[in-house]
Design the sequence.
């Protein structure tokens, strides 16, 4: 059973239905005990990083999700759910009061780095709109742009997915998909064999999104 | 690159699409979900349901619509009309809407944008602006509310800037002068607003033919283009529109 983590920030229906359509048995829950017994975990994304991180902490979800990912339980973070895989996020954090202290909120910290506001100008100084809203292309991390991760099995490089966000993950060897707005940013990441994060919303991304969810459900059922 | 979006808009009254629908092969031309599903198949980039009754009695119908849309559509959708409080918005988002658009209530209570953006994220909050040219002043547009019946004296460009500052994630900008005219978007209005804000602007009002969509992007500098009747009547398909936009050098998802 796949557990969709509810951290009380809004609508999880589309994610739940997308997973069900991909053939999964799904339960939406905010209960750490239920999360602890899940065969796979999906962390959807609504709201701001600091707020979500705080709520997860309060509900006792943070440590159990982190532990389950470390144990190799299949995991998919969507949008903010991907951001929460990282160490810190600046979204919704109080303003810095001096140069050394950081008021950034803590994430699950399975991946390194800080999730920060996207750059709004390219190398030539041209301005790009933020939030990054709409359909954009996702490419693999290599020079040819081809996908290597099983999460993208059967999906063509350059396929469109639906995005809506202002903050983006840091880059690193964990990147399995990238997208260009003002600059290239990580649009999909992977930790270990079966923990993934995607910046876009597969549940809103038509056939390609359904294919990606199906890939995740297959991975979850195979493990 | 981010594709420019094509957005069909459905005016919904008592749970049915109004403003003429003559779509081929629909079992029921008045059902908003069935129509939206067709647009989903045609690769519309998102759809908007505008509840034009939006009296309290009809809210249940609209909430039910949002819930059915969430079950059947595989693209983002926005519901507009009749929101007066954060609680109204919460109900709609809980029912499955990805975004809501706020119009009159935001003008009356601008803090509603702030509160809603804080509660649901800026990406969920569209500020809808109905604007009309000020007579004798070619670069001034006034905001109207109550379905375009009531002038406010507020400058449309200034209001768009304030909406952004308060946390709106997008502006849905309708030219009342062009709406229903089939003369094309008011590109001067669209450009004035698009240049004044850093958030995406959806151009609305006036589409009558294929070329108008590309004009909204290239001359109006909009990030997305919205139309209703040309799609509902089956005069143009989403694909035709996107192919034409692509032929004009615009990035679209085909």
Sequence:
């Amino acid at each position: 059973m796949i557990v969709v983590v509810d951290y009380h920030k809004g609508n999880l229906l589309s994610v739940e239905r997308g997973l069900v359509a991909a053939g999964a048995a799904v339960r939406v829950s905010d209960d750490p005990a239920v999360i602890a017994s899940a065969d796979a975990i999906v962390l959807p994304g609504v709201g701001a990083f600091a707020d979500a991180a705080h709520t997860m902490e309060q509900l006792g979800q943070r440590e159990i999700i982190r532990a389950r990912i470390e144990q190799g339980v299949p995991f998919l973070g969507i949008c903010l759910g991907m951001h929460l895989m990282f160490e810190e996020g600046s979204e919704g954090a109080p303003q810095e009061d001096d140069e050394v202290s950081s008021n950034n909120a803590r994430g699950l910290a399975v991946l390194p780095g800080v999730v920060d506001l996207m750059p709004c100008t390219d190398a030539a100084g041209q301005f790009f709109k933020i939030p990054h809203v709409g359909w954009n292309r996702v490419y693999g991390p290599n020079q040819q742009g081809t996908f290597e991760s099983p999460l993208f099995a059967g999906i063509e490089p350059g396929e469109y997915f639906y995005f809506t966000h202002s903050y983006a993950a840091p880059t690193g060897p964990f990147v399995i998909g990238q997208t260009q707005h003002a600059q290239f940013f990580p649009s999909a990441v992977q930790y270990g064999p079966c923990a993934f994060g995607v910046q876009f919303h597969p549940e809103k991304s038509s056939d390609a999104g359904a294919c990606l969810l199906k890939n995740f459900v297959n991975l979850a059922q195979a493990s | 690159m981010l594709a420019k979006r094509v957005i069909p808009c459905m005016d919904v009254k008592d749970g049915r699409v109004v403003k003429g629908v003559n779509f081929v092969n629909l079992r029921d031309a008045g059902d908003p979900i069935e129509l939206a599903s067709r647009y989903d198949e045609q690769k519309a980039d998102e759809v908007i349901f505008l509840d034009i009754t939006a009296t309290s009695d009809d809210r249940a119908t609209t909430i039910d619509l949002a819930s059915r849309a969430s079950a059947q559509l595989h693209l983002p959708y926005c519901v507009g009309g009749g929101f007066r409080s954060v609680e109204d918005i919460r109900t709609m988002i809980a029912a499955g809407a990805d975004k809501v658009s706020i119009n009159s209530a935001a003008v009356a209570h601008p803090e509603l944008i702030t509160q809603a953006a804080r509660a649901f994220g800026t990406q969920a909050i569209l500020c809808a602006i109905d604007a009309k040219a000020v007579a004798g002043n070619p670069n001034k547009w006034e905001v109207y509310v109550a379905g375009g019946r009531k002038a406010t004296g507020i400058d449309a460009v200034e209001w768009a800037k304030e909406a952004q500052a308060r946390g709106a994630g997008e502006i849905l900008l309708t030219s009342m002068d062009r709406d229903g005219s089939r003369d094309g978007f008011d590109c001067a209005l669209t450009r004035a607003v698009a240049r004044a804000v850093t958030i995406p602007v959806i151009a609305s009002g006036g589409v009558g033919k294929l070329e108008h969509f590309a004009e909204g992007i290239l001359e109006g500098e909009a990030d997305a283009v919205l139309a209703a009747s040309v799609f509902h009547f089956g005069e143009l398909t989403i694909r035709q529109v996107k192919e034409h936009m692509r032929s004009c050098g615009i990035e679209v998802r085909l």
Notes: Helices of chain A lie at 13-21, 32-36, 49-58, 62-70, 80-83, 206-222. Chain A has a mean pLDDT of 93. The interface with chain B takes residues 10-11, 13-14, 17-18, 46-48, 120, 127-137, 160, 162-166, 180-181, 201, 203-207, 209-210 of chain A (CB under 8 Å).
